[in-house]
From TrEMBL:
InterPro entries: Rieske_2Fe-2S (IPR017941), Rieske_2Fe-2S_sf (IPR036922), Ring_hydroxy_dOase_asu_C_dom (IPR015879), Rng_hydr_dOase-A (IPR001663). Residues 47-152 form the Rieske domain. CDD domains: RHO_alpha_C_GbcA-like, Rieske_RO_Alpha_N. Keywords: 2Fe-2S, Iron, Iron-sulfur, Metal-binding, Oxidoreductase. SUPFAM superfamilies: Bet v1-like, ISP domain. It comes from Aliidongia dinghuensis. This is (Fe-S)-binding protein. GO terms for molecular function: 2 iron, 2 sulfur cluster binding; iron ion binding; oxidoreductase activity.
Length: 418
């Protein structure tokens, strides 16, 4: 008779994680862990799902799918943002397909129940005169617009430490006026890997110099300087100069009224984020092939191109806000080994392609970087599924943020009963 070896529980896998190391194999590969991740990290936490500028005009709608959930971001007749579940209150049909739509009302294709853009049920044919429509409005989704970035929480008990993110980012994003941008370009890349590998890959630039020639023109690793003991005299002096330059720039930008110092909430919290105004390398203006601005029409009230790159990380996103444009990527897990990365390039809403900006110059760096990262994640996932895989140690110098991410992941799973 074949002997059956029971697989460890999710809780046992969480227990097996060694500090400073990548996760045990099953946490990246098992379908039951994937389902638990979706439930805990994507339903019980705040997630980034899109932007106000996805729905610029009344009647614009955008459907975002996540596991078995589907939500509609829309702009109502009063110009207000609404987020509702894409589930008809009659017999549950989806109202709109995934992606963008333009609607005057939300009409269910099945039996024509009709909802106003604020979610109110206004027409339900053949239900009798006693039928009470008022308790059949579309279910609202709890959301916050943070400087134009839309975060939702699908649970009835949303973590309240989102308030810190709101407080920090509303102020930081104000000069960019992201609410008044337009999406100049969008890509969707399906990475052949677990969503946590997508995030881990984004949390380090250890891999940048050997994999991202385009990005390295403008991007300086957050952990620049590395292990001081292993540096040559010359490189150490370089790293020290870099630290001094950071301190000086940060102080100057802050004095000029632009919040710049690093703010992070990465462990011991529900809502995971980090922001800092980063120095752009080379010509110092933007993440483009020559580090000069791609759009002549700067964002919001920006009058300068020398204000670096305000980066923002969350557990399902990374973003870069620069003087002339912004790049924003959101992560949606599709299965244990497939992850969607949706990236949008934002410019001033009045910027005209071919006049104010060149689309190729605007998108070149992050199209290349996203494709390169997709390859890295696929290769990493494939190696991790190999029986020969065992958790590896993170570099204390270049992978500290991965350690924090994995630690946060374990903490959050535990906080939700695993
Ligand atoms: O987009 C980011 O924030 C990260 C930082 C290092 C690698 N990647 C570019
Ligand atoms: Fe929507 Fe019937 S399911 S009208
Ligand atoms: Fe990368």
């Amino acid at each position: 008779m074949m002997s059956q070896v029971a697989s460890p529980s999710i809780s046992a896998l969480l227990d097996a994680r060694l500090a400073g190391h990548s996760l045990p194999q099953g946490l990246y590969t098992r379908p039951d862990v994937f389902e638990a991740d979706l439930d805990v990290l994507f339903r019980k936490h705040w997630i980034y799902v899109g932007l106000e500028c996805d729905v610029p005009e009344p009647g614009d709608a955008s459907v975002v799918e996540l596991g078995t959930s589907s939500i509609i971001l829309l702009r109502d007749d009063d110009g207000q943002i609404r987020v509702v579940h894409n589930v008809c209150r009659h017999r549950g049909s989806r109202l709109l397909p995934p992606g963008p739509s333009v609607v005057s009302k939300l009409v269910c294709p099945y039996h024509q129940w009709t909802y106003e853009l604020n979610g109110e049920l206004v027409h339900a044919p053949h239900m009798g005169i006693d039928f009470d429509k008022s308790c059949r409005n579309l279910k609202p989704v709890t959301f916050r617009s943070i400087g134009g970035l839309i975060y939702v929480c699908l649970s009835d008990n949303p973590p309240d430490d989102i308030d810190r993110l709101v407080e920090v980012m509303e102020r930081r994003l104000a000069p960019y006026d992201i609410r008044n941008t337009k999406i100049a370009f969008q890509t969707e890349v399906i990475e052949q890997g677990n969503w946590k590998l997508t995030l881990e890959n984004n949390r380090e630039c250890y891999h940048c110099s050997s994999n991202h020639p385009e990005l390295c023109v403008s991007f300086i690793d957050l952990d620049f300087g590395y292990d001081p003991q292993s540096l040559s005299e010359e490189d150490r002096a370089d790293a020290e100069r870099h630290q001094a330059l950071y301190a000086e720039r940060t102080e100057r930008w802050e004095a000029e009224g632009y919040p710049s110092a690093a703010v992070e909430q990465l462990v011991d919290c529900a809502t995971n984020f980090r922001t800092q105004r980063l120095i752009i390398a080379g010509n110092g203006e933007s993440q483009t092939p020559d580090a000069t601005a791609a759009s002549a029409k700067l964002l919001g009230s920006m009058t300068r191109k020398d204000l670096g790159d305000t980066h923002l990380w969350g557990h399902n996103c990374w973003n870069h806000f620069m003087g002339d444009h912004a790049v924003t990527s959101l992560v949606i897990p599709l299965s244990a080994d497939r992850t969607l990365v949706r990236t949008k390039w934002l410019v001033h809403k009045d910027a005209v392609e071919g006049v104010d900006y060149d689309l190729e110059k605007l998108t070149n760096v992050w199209i290349a970087t996203t494709d390169q990262d997709s390859e890295l994640v696929a290769r990493s996932h494939a190696g991790i599924t190999d029986p020969a895989y065992e958790p590896g140690c993170y570099s204390a110098f270049t992978e500290g943020h991965l350690d924090k991410f994995s630690t946060w992941y374990i903490e959050r799973m535990r906080a939700h009963g695993y």
